[in-house]
Amino acid sequence: MQLFFKDAQLSQDAVERRFAALENAGFEEVILQWSSYDHLSLYPFSRAGGQVEMVLPKIIDAARNHHIRIWMGTHYDNGFWEIAEGSPRQARQWFSRQLELLKRRLPVLIDTVRHSDPEQQVVIGWYISDEIDDQSWGSKYKRRELQEYLHQVVDLLRNGMPGWPVAISGFSSAAMTPAELAAFWSETLAATGIDTLLFQDGIGVGNLTQEQFSRYASRLAVLNSGRPGSFSVVVELFEKVGDGKDGSMKLRTAAAERVLRQLAETMVFAADGITLFSAPDYMLDDGDRRARRLLKMWQRAAHNCGKVE
Q: Which DSSP category does 55 fall into?
């Protein structure tokens, strides 16, 4: 679930409707992709030029009411993609600033979660909002900076909420071979202490074909062989239809038949369940004919898919 500036002032009723739709579609868990986004915070943490909207307590309340568990996203900063293209030194400086900001944010976020979920039955884990691609971290020097940063993030998260597992997502544009990507993630998970890798299939944005995805997923799935729960697949429910004037991608709900093929292929690798990206946007929109058709298809297939997020 992604919440942008346009979602910042959602009423409790609107949030309840979203979670009721998720419950009716059979979802058991939701990944809140971020708890703060650039200058928007969904809990009471303020910074110069920032905007605070108290949406997070509404989300936790609605999740409880509809028997859905939440993975809590960290802070998302678009600047991550700029340093991903920069030098190791630039990455180190940016990571240092982000860690200092996380140290300030985290106590407020945890207090908000504990106040809204005192019995700790709704929020069950952390999701690191930085997405890791296979083009930016090929150099051993930049990889070292990334791994040290993620290691420190995991330490801060675990110290704040001991016992919560930590997940992160990654994707491929075929810049690395399947063997290279598997080696990268094996090394990164070991170096950082991250528990779970969510691998995006990349089909919606055209990063990978179905055949390519299968080759990558088959190599990455071995990460799960020794540590159950350490690997899962993210199925993209959309398709790219163009580019906006601001450089953003124009997306729409994918054809139900294509998603059905993705699900069938994914289940070979998804022993611990799958994640759909993103059901609220591309499957639960009553005003979208393609979304309604996808939902009907999903409801027929869901009983074969086990746990879904």
A: -
